[in-house]
Amino acid sequence: MRLDQLPLRERAHIADIDWTALSDAEARRLREFGFGEGVAVEVWHRSGLLGRGPIACRVGRMTVAIRRSNAAAISVVQQDRP
């Protein structure tokens, strides 16, 4: 599943990032925010009309807003809830 498809408040881990789908600046920004394989992530909010706005994500202990197109390059695996 892609990060842009992850249901709100569902915990997941990043399985893979298609770095080739991102510009150098976008890839650098995601790395600076802590995005990488194995990192815990959660979608907190989706903004914008027609599904085109940014997504607010919790990455580790930080909340960041990323472009939906960037989120589409991130594959995640949902965690099982206890």
From TrEMBL:
SMART domains: FeoA. The keyword Iron applies. Pfam families: FeoA. SUPFAM superfamilies: C-terminal domain of transcriptional repressors. The keyword Membrane does not apply. Residues 1-78 form the Ferrous iron transporter FeoA-like domain. InterPro entries: Fe-transptr_FeoA-like (IPR007167), FeoA_core_dom (IPR038157), Transcriptional_repressor_C (IPR008988). Keywords: Iron. This is Ferrous iron transport protein A. It comes from Sphingomonas colocasiae.
